[in-house]
Design a protein that fits this description.
Blueprint (H helix, E strand, L loop, with lengths): L13 H22 L4 H28 L5 H25 L3 H34 L3
Helix pairs in contact: 1-2, 1-4, 2-3, 3-4
Amino acid sequence: MAYQWDSSLETGYEKIDNQHKQLISALNDIIEASISGKGSDEVFKTLDFLTGYTIMHFADEEKLQIQYDYPDYFTHKHYHDEFKATVKALTERLVKEGPTGEMVELVTTSIGNWLLNHIKGDDFRMAAYVKTHSKKQ
């Protein structure tokens, strides 16, 4: 397993944390499908799930930010939008070049590193703001 969930990734919001766990699990599923030779269909099916789940997850985060009038909402949303475009480009490249071990590693490393950095940076800042402001309501 390339990516491991641990308490250092917890934002304190169960729904968001559970979604982050699912995203990490999907990344590991892509790696496992590639390593075990399950075939390109399984790799693409799992990548498809990851892409759709990411879009749903970002929408949930953005709703939470709007609900609490998060001041960095537009910046955070911009990061989400850029990431969706990156995932789309990586997926297109994977389709074109095929799910070789090298391509799968590029895709999962790019997505995984971005996700971990985003959680520990942008998501932690957002969660801290929301926690502080939810107590005032």
